[in-house]
Amino acid sequence: MLNSSRSRRIPALLLGLLIAAGGAVATAAPAHAAGPLLVQCAGTEQDTFTPPIRSTQQTITVRVHATLLCPLNGVVTSATLDYTYTHIGLSCTNAGTGGPGSLPIRWSNGQNSTFQFNVDVTLVNGTYVVRKIGFISSGLFTGYNAVRLLPGINPNVGACTSPAGLGASGGATTLTLTGL
């Protein structure tokens, strides 16, 4: 279960390396049928954990910062995701399984969007794959389908189980918007 002082939050980037979701929780409506590609962005994400993630479950404040480039688009050239959320019960062995959430997007043209989604966390051959599937609920690109992918996250269990714990993690991320 996740929450924050403002609203509930959800996990996404992984136990010790897998956490990156957040934003005010709202029930994500099903995405519309995919239309033509509108925006394709790729970049990196860095998450910090306070206190660091350890073997025992605890309440963790997660700070997410992601920078993505959107090179083949005439409307925006980049996107920034910058937000904080609280994850209750996080540990080296409990990253959660997903659920509904939302997060803010700041575009290179100065406009903002809110991405409303459902998160799916899957462990495939020891690697976590996080998918956030939903739609843009407000701001630039309102109504468009959106998919955020955090592929191939390998948890650093050694750091997570050390006395210092796991204080930060990062990895690749993509964001794709398609038309109605």
Keywords:
Ig-like domain-containing protein; 1 helix; 180 residues; signal
Question: What would you note in describing this structure?
Answer:
This protein has one helix at residues 157-161; strands at residues 37-53, 58-69, 78-90, 98-107, 112-124, 127-139, 145-153, 166-178. The chain is built from one helix and eight strands, in the order E-E-E-E-E-E-E-H-E. It has one domain. The chain has 180 residues and is mostly beta strands. An eight-stranded antiparallel barrel has the order 1-2-3-4-5-6-7-8. It is elongated, with a radius of gyration of 16 Å. Residues 1-33 form the signal peptide. This is Ig-like domain-containing protein. Keywords: Signal.
Summarize the entry for a quick read.
It comes from Allocatelliglobosispora scoriae. With 180 residues, the protein is mainly beta.
- Quaternary structure: single chain
Radius of gyration: 16 Å
The figure for the number of domains is 1
The major β-sheet equals: 8 strands, antiparallel, barrel
**How large is the share of residues in beta strands?**
over 45%
Helix count, DSSP H or I runs of 4 or more residues: 1
Distance between the termini: 32 Å
Determine the mean pLDDT: 77
Write out the strand line-up for the largest beta sheet, numbering strands in chain order. 1-2-3-4-5-6-7-8
Structural class: mainly beta
Helix content: under 10%
Outline: elongated
Order of helices and strands: EEEEEEEHE
Total beta strands: 8
- Low-confidence segments, given as residue ranges, are 1-33
Keywords: Signal
Protein name: Ig-like domain-containing protein
